[in-house]
Write a structure and sequence with these properties.
Elements: E1 5-12, H1 18-21, E2 22-28, E3 36-45, H2 48-55, E4 66-67, E5 72-80, E6 92-96, E7 113-117, E8 121-123, H3 130-133, H4 139-150, E9 159-161, H5 167-179, E10 183-187, H6 193-199, E11 203-206, H7 212-220, E12 227-230, H8 234-243, E13 249-252, H9 273-278, E14 282-285, H10 288-294, H11 297-312, E15 322-325, H12 329-336, E16 345-348, E17 355-356
Parallel strand pairs: 9-10, 9-12, 10-11, 12-13, 13-14, 15-16
Antiparallel strand pairs: 1-2, 1-4, 1-17, 3-5, 3-7, 3-16, 5-6, 6-8
Length: 359
């Protein structure tokens, strides 16, 4: 009797440092159930959040042993389960693998094949490279949701953001420019200022040698800034809140200042009570996983479709990633952890990846 087909998967046996707990394993190719599709994965990125999941430092924890990668991928439909209409075998699709928390099981993308709910699949054409397609569902979507939905920034209205040189920060600049929204961009290195301006940032504040609150006041004038995004937290996040005009809104979607912190008490934003109370400023968080957990499948696909159009039309440019075969996962992880790494690492799989034991 022939053995069932198998595939390679990158699996973490337990919580720990990714380089210590990840192992390359051979696993059976899964079978799609009702409403599901079997996806032959072509490319899947290595996000910092993927590594934090394995470290037990993210907003959810999978059941171990767990296949790594919990965000996104691009591939082709290999098979369809019952009641899985609307898509075709061979169709190229993006999978938003982000778990809809709370309580949802995570589907790891660092494997050659995976099954997915067809309601989480977005068809993509060959006009998008594998590098672009496998990065649609996290960073560009986050930028769109933050600017257009969470803050609903209007044309001509100032938008203040930290970590302007990050992937999301750069996408926010591109999107804001497209929408006619002027931006004040905070960076921590003087050599990043001209780069951000060349990208389309209207104003740049460098915290290495400038006072953030003072500079924002000088730039925005009497009307001030009422909308802000923060991906740093800590003292910088607190300064952004202080820089806002009365009634301003700050959405915090990351905590880069605490990237290596393991003490929960250090994961803070020291806000001024007087500013929050008497100036009625709002500080709230945004987490893409929770958004997927509350958005309907139709709304999620609509937003992803808008992102697909923005990237296909060149409004949003995703930096070209660097491909790695799954076997070189230690190199990919090291690159993902390198400051100012340039290219995001992503895993790629051969078209004939499936194998059958005993052939």
């Amino acid at each position: 009797m022939p053995m069932p087909p198998t595939m390679s998967a990158l699996v973490a046996e337990k919580v720990g440092e990714p380089g210590d707990v990840l192992r390359l394993e051979s696993r059976p190719v899964p079978t799609p159930e009702a409403g599901q599709a079997l996806i032959r994965v072509k490319a899947t990125p290595v996000h910092a959040s993927d590594l934090h999941v394995l470290r037990g430092r993210y907003g959810f924890s999978p059941e171990f042993p767990a296949v790594g990668g919990h965000m996104e991928c691009v591939g082709r439909i290999e098979a369809l389960g019952p009641d899985a209409g609307g898509l075709s075998i061979g169709e190229r699709v993006v999978h938003a693998a982000i778990p809809a928390v709370p309580g949802a099981r995570a589907t790891g993308t660092w494997q050659e094949y995976l099954v997915a709910d067809i309601r989480r699949l977005l068809p993509v054409s060959g006009r998008l490279s594998d590098s672009d397609a496998c990065q649609l569902a996290v960073n560009p979507l986050t930028a769109l949701l933050l600017v257009a939905r969470e803050l609903d920034v209007q044309p001509g209205e100032w938008l203040l953001q930290t970590a302007a040189g990050s992937t999301v920060g750069r996408l926010v600049i591109q999107l804001a420019r497209h929408l006619g929204i002027p931006t004040i961009n905070v960076v921590r290195r003087r050599d990043a200022v001209e780069e951000i301006k060349a990208l389309g940032g209207d104003e740049v504040v460098c915290t290495a040698d400038e006072d953030l609150v003072q500079r924002v006041a000088e730039i925005a004038g009497p009307t001030g800034v009422r909308k802000a995004l923060d991906c740093v937290a800590g003292d910088v996040g607190a300064q952004v809140s202080q820089a806002l005009a009365p009634g301003g809104e700050l959405v915090v979607y990351g905590a880069l200042s605490t990237h290596r912190q393991t003490d929960p008490a250090a994961l803070t934003i020291p806000l001024s009570a007087r500013s929050v109370i008497y100036e009625t400023k709002t500080v709230r968080g945004f987490w893409l996983n929770r958004w997927f957990g509350t958005a309907s499948p139709e709304d999620a696909l609509d937003a992803l479709s808008e992102v697909r159009t923005l990237v296909t039309d060149g409004v949003l440019t995703i930096p070209e990633g660097r491909p790695f075969p799954l076997e070189r996962f230690t190199e990919a992880i090291a690159l993902a952890e390198t400051p100012a790494r340039g290219a995001k690492p992503f895993f790629v799989f051969e078209e004939d990846a499936i194998s059958t034991a005993g052939r």
